[in-house]
Every structure is written in structure tokens, then in C-alpha cells.
Amino acid sequence: MSHRDLEVIQAGRVPYLTALEWQRALAHDRIAGRLPHDVLLLLEHDPVVTLGRTTQAAHVMDPSGIDVVEVERGGDVTFHGPGQLVGYPILDLNGYRPDLHWYLRTLEQALIDALGALAIPAERNPGLTGVWTHGRKIASIGIHVKQWVTWHGFALNVTTDLAAFDRIVPCGIPGVVMTSVARERGEGAAGAALWDETVRAVMRGFETAFGVATRLAEPATQPS
Questions:
Q1: What's the pTM value of the predicted model, to 2 decimals?
Q2: Is 15 a catalytic residue?
Q3: How far is residue 30's CA from residue 28's CA, in Å, rounded to a whole number?
Q4: Which of 91, 171, 176, 202 is catalytic?
């Protein structure tokens, strides 16, 4: 696979609905040819529960005091919150492989490679989408594709408060145990240094799995 550019935008904390409109706008620009390259948004959200196309009402057990948003991505219910690295790849799969199964497995591989760089052994769980370590789920994936351009993406728990997942049945999987980079690394792993290390690992994971050359965007690319 030949290398292609992937612009990475580190946006910090962005309200969920703002990020939703942002990625939709980028995807529509990519479809229309106004955006000449692929983009990976990396950010955090304030606490929010999002409902994918296959969500069952019973999987939202305690929505009190938190925003709940229905979206067009695939998958079931998930939680986003501080300490979770959320990635929204805006990729034109015509430049890779126009195949949803390939894209999902390659997105998983990018995260598996990233976690490996963080000394966390990660793997797939056959029949389920996402990334796991020692039987615990560490990253969730839900995507949407239009004319082979992707948006939505992944949520990797870095220092996330895992108790928040008690509000839902994460990804509609009864009995699933959620974990985080900090919990798996142990020994007080937390803070900005761990976050920055995780971002670098994810960028390298995308480079390896998708055969891209990542480059950081200028701060002016971020939303106002």
C-alpha cells in the first residue's frame, strides 16, 4: 500500500454535538472533493451517552443527569467522557479498500498496534467489534460510511472513570467488563504524560495499519 497523508487534529475537549457536526462537515467536504486529504480528529467529550442504530432501550439503565444522543453510527450504546481518547477518522476508502469489513478490522488493528506500543497486549473478540485485553474491553468502535467516506470511529479508555459504564450495557454486551490504559498499566499511570503517550501510539498505529503518513494540523484547524 502506498503512503498517503493523514492530517491529525488534536482538538482537546469538544462538546459532543459540536464534534458531531464538525465530522459530518468534514466528511461531506471529503465526498465533494473540497477536502483533498484524509483527517483524524482526536478529542475528548464531556460525559454523554450515544445510541447507535442497533441500540435497545433496555441497554440504557441510568440516563439521569447526562445527555443522551441518537446518532447514525453502527453499534449499540456507549459512553464518552473525560479521559477517553475519541478518534473520528474521515477517510475516503476509495483510496484504501472500499470494504466495510476490511475497514473495521484495520481500525481494530491500528488500536491493537497502539496498545502494543503501550505494553498492553490487545486482541479482537471473535464475533464482536472493538478491542480487548485479558478479556476486558478497552476500546469501542462504531462507524458510519457514505459514498465510502467514513466518520464516527473509536473510543479508547485512557484514564476514563470506568464507573460511568455502569449506567449502560456497554455496546449491548451483557456482563462486559470495561478497562482503561491506566488500569492496565497500573502503578499510578495517569495524567497528561500518559495521554500524550497514548496519542503518539495511536498515530503510529494508524501509520502501520493503514499505511499512512500522519502529520499534525495547525491549531487554526480546530473549531471556534
A1: 0.94
A2: no
A3: 5
A4: 171
